Amino acid sequence: MLYIAVVGGAKCTEDEYNLAFSVGMEIARQKAVLVCGGGSGVMEAAAKGVYQRGGTTIGILPGESNQSGNRYLAYTIATGIGEARNAIIARTADAVIAVGGEYGTLSEMALALKMGKPVIGLKSWFLIAPGPLDKKVQKADTANAAVEKAISLIAN
């Protein structure tokens, strides 16, 4: 079973929401499991896409209540550790797809890269490193391309 995280802002544009929803639909089509932060915005959109296609969703929640996640989560894990839960999301995922995002998204991307996980960006952060790095954010232009790239990179 492949675990793919979708990360992005709790506040997002309509375009980002629709893109994350499409990513979720494709994750479910590929029979992978969605891992996300469990909140609103991009996280909710991806979970909704997976849910509507009959897939499995897991929310790694920042608070102490399993009831605080969005309604499209099949499973929730209440961590009680706030943003530090980003490390759990990155560790749990086999690959990370970032849609838009703010600083929390950037931290998830950086943690995943540090852990050797593939990171694919859709209208998200792309930084220029001060020197050569073995891992970098891979760019995708569509939801399907992002999921296909994630699965391909996991296999390698």
List the helices and strands and how they pair.
Blueprint: E1 3-8, H1 14-29, E2 33-36, H2 42-52, E3 56-61, E4 75-78, H3 85-92, E5 95-99, H4 103-114, E6 119-122, E7 138-139, H5 143-155
Parallel strand pairs: 1-2, 1-5, 2-3, 3-4, 5-6, 6-7
Largest sheet report: 7 strands, parallel
State the helical fraction.
25-40%
CATH architecture group name: 3-Layer(aba) Sandwich
Average pLDDT, rounded to a whole number, is 96
CATH class: Alpha Beta
User: In DSSP terms, counting alpha (H) and pi (I) runs of 4 or more, how many helices?
Assistant: 5
Q: Which word captures the global form?
A: globular
Helix/sheet category: alpha/beta
* Structural domains: how many: 1
**Strands side by side in the biggest sheet:** 4-3-2-1-5-6-7
**Percent range for β-strand residues:** 15-25%
Q: Count of DSSP E strands? A: 7
Distance between the ends: 15 Å
CATH topology: Rossmann fold
Sequence of secondary-structure elements: EHEHEEHEHEEH
